[in-house]
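Service request form, structural biology core

Requester: graduate student, group of Dr. S.
Request type: structure prediction, single chain
Budget code: on file
Notes: please return the result as structure tokens.

Sequence provided:
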Amino acid sequence: MTNDAHQPRASFDTWGPWALLAAGVVASAISARPVGMDRTGLTVCAALVPAAVVLQLFWGWVKRRRPGPSRTGVCLYLVRWAIAFVLTWANPFFAFYAVTGYYTAARELPHRLVLPGLFLTAITMAGSEIGGWPPHGLVLWVGFFLVLLVNMVMVSVFTRYALQEQNRSAVQAETITELERTNTALQQALEENAALHEQLLVQAREAGVADERRRLAAEIHDTIAQGLTGIIAQLQVVAGATDLATARTHLDRASALARHSLGEARRSVHNLAPVALEDTGLPEALKNTVSEWGERTGVRAEFTVTGTAEQLHDEVSATLLRIAQEALANAARHARAGRVGVTLSFMGDEVILDVRDDGAGFDPAAVPARTRAGGFGLDGMRARAERIAGSLTVESEPGHGTAVSARVPLVRHDR
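Core staff response, request fulfilled:
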């Protein structure tokens, strides 16, 4: 693109002066008699035209060795102006050759000498335009200065436009260069982003696997572990029973727990909702869970629904049911409560599950971190609530019971 832009200018620098010199020679030869050229003028032209040819040949050789403004170029410009001035004095039509100074001053002279060079060319052109050198009479001299003034004004205007265009071209060139650098940097950034994207995909995949493992671990804990705990408790009662009826009752409960836990385990493996939610909604599932837990533990348990019950999304229902099961399991293991109340509240855009007991209570700040051998407990319930953009709070005090409250968004069933 840059080479194409400079090619026309390079061509004019090479052939323009030759073409203008040839035009001046032809025009002067045709007009020699009408303009009144004498023998002296013809002799001068015959000597200076070959000198101009030699000058152009030498100048071309200099520019090939040292392109751009130079001291030699300044000297050659002045010599060419002098030749053109004398030729124009002999015949005004040699102004064709003199006009070369207008086109080459900005490229062959240093910046500080451009206007003086243009002024010299304007003097030659003004003399030609009034009919030739020297002006005869006051009127022609006045006309010469007027024409010179017009030429200088035009030269100043065109020079200003040329400089503006030159500056604009320089700015465009800098802009193009900057855009190329920016494109290169952008390409590098895109390549780095692609690599980072692949890395993030790997990390997201690993995080998803870890999260799924935690979820499955929690599911197994809530199903198999709690079911086995209940079975063990029933069998312990059987071992200490003194009559066959009591033992049979607890054996039946242990058998029911085993079947229930087996169903839950199968559902967990297939990543489905809890069995209790398969045929009923969350309120009915919680009611059944609380009732069965009360019968199994012998603790008075009550379930209450407030607000207008709605069909919840499967994930919301499963989360709240698991939290309730874990809270009841904790109450059975640690609280030694005489009464437990479970409340499910539908409040606008939220669902709140409250599990309260009147048991021994504890200090929440003193609860030890979960160990490998322990259950999921409070941390597991909190993680379940947070997984669906909810929260879990625990209020307890030694000797004054415990209240667990899970607050989650109300997301309706999507089918």
